[in-house]
C-alpha cells in the first residue's frame, strides 16, 4: 500500500524488451534507497512495481503486457520523469489516502487554469471509472493523492498548490497528456457490497454493535 504522497521525481533510464514485456530501469534521483530490499514495492507514477535489482541510485522492475496496456507506462520513453513512492510502513503517517498502486485505467488532462497561486486542473476519465469519483472524495493521479473539487459527467477537477506541482511530474504535464488513475478503494468496496445486497445487513450490524439499534 501507498499514501499518494510523492517522495521523489525520478526518470526512466532504460526500457528493455524481454520476451514480449519490458524490464524498466528507473533512475531514482533523491529517493532514499538505503532501506530498500529485493522484492519491495515502489510506485512509479502510481503503478506498483516489484524491485528485482537495485543500487543506491536506481532500480529495475519487470512490467507485464497487462500493465503496459492499462497504464501510461506503455507510452513512456527513456528520459521521461516519473513520480516515485516507496511502500507504506505501518508506523508511517498516512498523509494522503490509502493507495494500492493498482491503476484502474488512464485519463487525460483537459485543461489547466490559474487560480490565485494554485492551478485548477480538469481531467477526463472513461465512464466506467467516472462513477467512482465523488465531490470531495479522493483520487490518485500518477501516484499523487488529490481531493476532487467538482464532478461533471466523466470530467472532474482538482486544485494543485505550487508545492505539489513543483515536487511531482505535474510540472511537465500539458492538456492532452495521459495520466494514470486509481479511484478510491473504498468506493470499489461500497459498490461491491451494494451489488451483492450486503450493505443493509452491514448497516444493521454496525448500529447494533454501537448501541443504536
TrEMBL record:
One annotated GO molecular function is:
riboflavin synthase activity
Ordered alphabetically, the record's keywords are: Repeat, Riboflavin biosynthesis, Transferase
Please list the residue ranges covered by the Lumazine-binding repeats: 1-97, 98-194
List this protein's GO terms for biological process. riboflavin biosynthetic process
Query: Which residues lie in coiled coils?
Result: none
Please report the stretch or stretches of sequence annotated as the Lumazine-binding domain: 1-97, 98-194
InterPro entries to which the protein is assigned, alphabetical: ATP_synth_asu-like_sf, Lumazine-bd, Lumazine-bd_dom, Riboflavin_synthase-like_b-brl
Catalytic reaction(s) noted = 2 6,7-dimethyl-8-(1-D-ribityl)lumazine + H(+) = 5-amino-6-(D-ribitylamino)uracil + riboflavin
Name the EC number(s).
Answer: 2.5.1.9
Q: Which SUPFAM superfamilies match?
A: Riboflavin synthase domain-like (SSF63380)
Q: In which pathway does it act?
A: Cofactor biosynthesis; riboflavin biosynthesis; riboflavin from 2-hydroxy-3-oxobutyl phosphate and 5-amino-6-(D-ribitylamino)uracil: step 2/2
Q: How does it assemble?
A: Homotrimer.
Q: What does this protein do?
A: Catalyzes the dismutation of two molecules of 6,7-dimethyl-8-ribityllumazine, resulting in the formation of riboflavin and 5-amino-6-(D-ribitylamino)uracil.
What NCBIfam families does its record include?
Answer: PRK09289.1, PRK13020.1, ribE
* Name recorded for this polypeptide: Riboflavin synthase
Native organism:
Luteibacter anthropi
Amino acid at each position: 500500500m501507498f499514501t499518494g504522497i510523492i517522495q521523489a521525481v525520478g526518470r526512466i533510464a532504460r526500457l528493455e524488451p524481454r520476451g514480449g514485456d519490458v524490464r524498466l530501469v528507473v533512475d531514482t534521483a533523491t529517493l532514499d534507497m538505503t532501506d530498500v530490499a529485493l522484492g519491495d514495492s515502489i510506485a512509479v507514477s502510481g503503478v506498483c512495481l516489484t524491485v528485482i535489482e537495485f543500487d543506491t541510485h536506481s532500480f529495475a522492475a519487470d512490467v507485464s503486457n497487462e500493465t503496459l496496456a492499462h497504464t501510461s507506462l506503455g507510452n513512456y520513453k527513456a528520459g521521461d520523469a516519473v513520480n516515485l513512492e516507496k511502500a507504506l510502513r505501518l508506523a508511517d503517517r498516512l498523509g494522503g489516502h490509502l493507495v494500492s498502486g493498482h491503476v484502474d485505467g488512464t485519463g487525460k488532462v483537459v485543461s489547466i487554469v490559474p487560480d490565485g497561486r494554485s492551478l485548477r486542473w480538469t481531467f477526463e476519465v472513461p465512464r466506467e471509472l467516472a462513477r467512482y469519483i465523488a465531490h470531495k472524495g479522493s483520487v490518485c493521479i500518477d501516484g499523487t493523492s488529490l481531493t476532487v473539487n467538482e464532478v461533471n459527467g466523466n470530467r472532474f477537477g482538482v486544485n494543485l498548490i505550487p508545492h505539489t506541482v513543483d515536487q511531482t511530474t505535474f510540472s511537465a504535464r500539458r492538456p492532452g497528456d495521459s495520466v494514470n488513475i486509481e479511484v478510491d478503494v473504498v468506493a470499489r468496496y461500497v459498490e461491491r457490497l451494494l451489488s451483492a445486497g450486503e450493505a443493509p445487513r452491514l448497516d444493521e450490524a454496525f448500529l447494533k454493535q454501537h448501541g443504536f439499534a
